[in-house]
Amino acid sequence: MSEAISRYPSLSHWGAYTALVRDGRVIGCEPFAHDQAPSPLIHTMPDMVHSPLRIARPSVRASWLRHRGAPELRGVDGYVEVDWDTALALVHDELQRVRAQHGPSAIFGGSYGWSSAGRLHHARTLTHRFLYAGGGCVDQSGNYSWGAAQFLLPHIIGTYAPVTGRITDWNSVVGHTRLLIAFGGIPLRNTQIASGGAGDHSAPGWLARARQAGMRAVVVSPTRADAPAALAAEWIPIRPNTDAAMMLGMAHTLLAEDRHDRDFLARCCNGFEQYADYLLGRADGQPKDAAWAERICGVPADTIRALARDAAGARTLLSCSWSLQRGHRGEQPYWGSVALAALLGQIGLPGGGFAFGHGSMNGAGNPRPDLPAPEMRAGRNPAGASIPVARLTDMLLQPGEPYEFNGRTGIYPDIRLVYWAGGNPFHHHQDLNRLMRAWARPETIIVHEPWWTPTARRADIVLPATTTLERNDIGGSSRDRYLLAMRQAVAPVGRSRNDFDIYRELAARGGFELAYTEGRDEMTWIRHIYEQMRPAWEAAQLTLPAFDEFWERGHVALPPPARDFVLFEQFREDPAGHPLKTRSGRLELHSAAIAEFGYDDCPPHPAWLPPVEWLGAERAARWPLHLVTCQPADRLHSQLDPAPATRANQVAGREAVLLHPDDAAERGIAQGDVVRLFNDRGACLGGAQLSADLLRGVVVMPTGAWFDPQDDALERHGNPNVLTVDVGTSRLAQGPSALSALVQVERWQGDAPAVRAFEPPALQPEASGAPR
Ligand SMILES: Nc1nc2c(c(=O)[nH]1)N[C@H]1C(S)=C(S)[C@@H](COP(=O)(O)OP(=O)(O)OC[C@H]3O[C@@H](n4cnc5c(=O)[nH]c(N)nc54)[C@H](O)[C@@H]3O)O[C@H]1N2
Ligand SMILES: Nc1nc2c(c(=O)[nH]1)N[C@H]1C(S)=C(S)[C@@H](COP(=O)(O)OP(=O)(O)OC[C@H]3O[C@@H](n4cnc5c(=O)[nH]c(N)nc54)[C@H](O)[C@@H]3O)O[C@H]1N2
Ligand SMILES: [Mo]
Questions:
Q1: What is the dihedral of CA 593, 597, 603, 609, to 10 degrees?
Q2: Is the fold of 59-144+405-557 the same as that of 618-747?
Q3: Residue 189 neighbours by CB under 8 Å, 6+ apart
Q4: Domain spans, the chain
Q5: What is the CATH number of domain 59-144+405-557?
Q6: What gap in Å lies between CA 565 and CA 172, rounded to an integer?
């Protein structure tokens, strides 16, 4: 045993760190020296890398290996471990067979998921690269994060850049904003995370500076927990999914009291008249006044009116969390907030206007020069086929059926083979019992995974992938000021291989290795990705250090930006000279393009449209609690769930479910009880955690507990996606409606079934001789 500890810089979606290695094992992690607020999640890495749930060898589902059959046994069957050569031959033959018999539109390679932070070894990108180079596949458009916003915003503001990161800088907010109204709040648990990894967790520092500058903050949310102490915010409780009504109530107040900015509306907006008609009730006889809004959202009319007046009287920023648009009709609160900001007339002024995602991800509003982040390109999909990201189950269950999406009609393809690497649909998708039925339809399912996740154990061929610390990579987020070197710290665990190399070998078997690799290996790719950023640096008159210097030092810091970024500053100054990329070139309060679609579920102006499930729905008589499935504080989605530090936060051995003490008392539920959450889609168990910081009638259960169904009637571990609804936000965006779900909760009587989520499936070593 040697005593020496070696140190390797690395990066995860939850932050940059140095891995400490002794005797070939990761024994600890130290945060990146320049991180102001490192996330404790980095300390789970040693347990995760050396987890008993690592997949040691390529594994093939027993019934599939025997006779390519019994798809209904996915999730039940055991696995036969095979050598790499056997596994790669099986994958190659299946891809060839399906391509030859059915073409690329029978292969589903959307592979949605966050994968790992490094850009070269990003599993989803590599899956696309491999399948595109091999002839194409069916892909997924959009994402679960801001799926409704991505397709709505271009119609109304000409871009969706404000959800990818380009919002008014925090510098401008601290300097100028006097009132911040945060719909959905700014929960700091979410700012631990940045897609592509954060060098610096900047959000807590910005909140502290804003508070010091005397900014008033108002958080509108079903839970006080969304108002961080660092902000000393006032809390306005609101019924879930009703923000659009509250925004209309505020807008009506501005109009009725003549507090709207006529000059801004005339210069910069299109369709004010039609929107005003709706607000004043000229068409339907119902003014959308504060009293009307109160009946829907539960916020007192006086509060709505006072907030509207305050907003008109001060430099005000309206910020919406991404969660607002992850519910049914999620287009409406986003359009509603843009329209309300337009009435206030401060769009394009320092610290004013609208913004998204301040509490959704690290680095939203973090000042950063407009330089590219490192990127690995997937190339072009020659099949040109894709479905809206969250229509996964519909596609599998309804081949040949039409669907509508953003003004066009598509036809669901007939999928024979599913290829997934870097995502966990049995985490991320809604109505998992319905997905289970759909999952039995394809002939073959292939998954790469480091761990025996719920998706891995529902695949036919499972290929073990390395984790970040077992390979070299480069990372950095478009919201952060660091480029980070990621150096291999330990040898691959078990027989795992890099996703990059698995696909390289398969591409070689398919005769397209060069198209896939472009002749580069790991280190030449990393250099290439780095050098691709150099022209942009030079154009900005900046010097990107030599690659070797970067690799040696472990990071490069981007300089601070020359000036504050203010969203739509130039457009405001000169709307004709800097038009938006909308139909009218202006901000659209009424959209002719959307009107042409003729969708009754997304009318051409912001509106209140009752979601399928909310506390005001008829269904609430039977299912009286609104389930909010927020992001988990102690992991990223389903990642890190098996780590002992994460499991220590469970209640009664399951995911915690937050209940108001009065809602709990009515049901005879006490703190720490096992409870059953149920509706007509399914049921799951959870551990009761009582909290008075909740609106009554709302229960909160974070996502991410590894899916552990006893059968389709009971999930044992606390995965709330057995309860959520699997319908698109509207025909326009077809985004996920995860945050619109009604449930009932009851105390579990007697012994609760044991959780089996962290037991790997039965594994049988390959029988001597050839398998088959
Ligand atoms: N009810 C409800 N559901 C939701 C949401 C919600 O708010 N409510 N939020 C949605 C949102 S916004 C999102 S983004 C999705 C997230 O959904 P996902 O992105 O699917 O969730 P993750 O758990 O991050 O899945 C990533 C998977 O990649 C694997 N992985 C990590 N590194 C590697 C690697 O190097 N190679 C390979 N092959 N695999 C790797 C991990 O083990 C993990 O299984 O969930 C969505 N689901
Ligand atoms: N720790 C951690 N952080 C994460 C992630 C993670 O898995 N773990 N995932 C990351 C990803 S992929 C994404 S996309 C972002 C998601 O970012 P968000 O979508 O903003 O995150 P959520 O936690 O789903 O929701 C934020 C808050 O919105 C409130 N809320 C829910 N519904 C409503 C509503 O109808 N009205 C109002 N006013 N409030 C509502 C909830 O109380 C919740 O706490 O988070 C990122 N950050
Ligand atoms: Mo997300």
A1: -140
A2: no
A3: 631, 632, 633
A4: 6-50, 59-144+405-557, 147-366+565-597, 618-747
A5: 3.40.50.740
A6: 8
Amino acid at 415: I
**Please, which residues bridge with residue 11 across strands?**
16
Would you say 731 and 404 are in contact if contact means Cβ atoms under 8 Å apart? yes
Our CA dihedral for 336, 339, 341, 345, rounded to 10 degrees, sits at -170
Beta-strand runs (E) in 252-406? 269-270, 316-320, 353-356, 385-388, 402-405
Which amino acid is residue 538, in one-letter code? E
Catalytic residue (choose from 79, 112, 452, 525): 112
CB 369 within 8 A of CB 281: no
Of 734, 733, 607, nearest in space to 154 by CA = 733
- 124 is written with which tokens? 């989803």
Is ligand 1 within 6 A of the CB of residue 499?
Answer: yes
Tokens standing for residue 635? 């992991």
Residue from 53, 393, 427, 636 to probe ligand 1 pocket by mutation (most atoms less than 8 Å from CB): 427
| Binding site membership of 735 for ligand 2 (Cβ less than 6 Å) | no
User: 707 CA distance to ligand 1 centroid (A)?
Assistant: 13
Amino acid at 675: V
Number of H helices, E strands in the chain: 26, 32
**What's the CATH fold of domain 618-747?**
Barwin-like endoglucanases (2.40.40)
pTM of the model: 0.98
Ligand 1 near 322 CB (within 6 A): no
CA–CA distance, 227 with 44 (Å, rounded to integer): 27
Residue 385 CA to residue 655 CA, distance in Å, equals 38
153 close to 166: Cβ distance less than 8 angstroms: no
147-366+565-597 is classed CATH 3.40.228.10: yes
- B/e letters for 286-316, b = 16+ CB within 10 Å, e = fewer, are ebbbbebbbebbbbebebbbebbeebbebbb
pLDDT in tens, 209-266: 999 999 999 999 999 999 999 899 999 999 999 999 999 999 999 999 999 999 999 9
Tokens 């009754």 map to which residue? Answer: 600
What is the per-residue pLDDT across 33-88, written as a single tens digit (0 to 9) for each? 999 999 999 999 999 999 999 999 999 999 999 999 899 999 999 999 999 999 99
The answer to whether 419 is a known catalytic residue is no
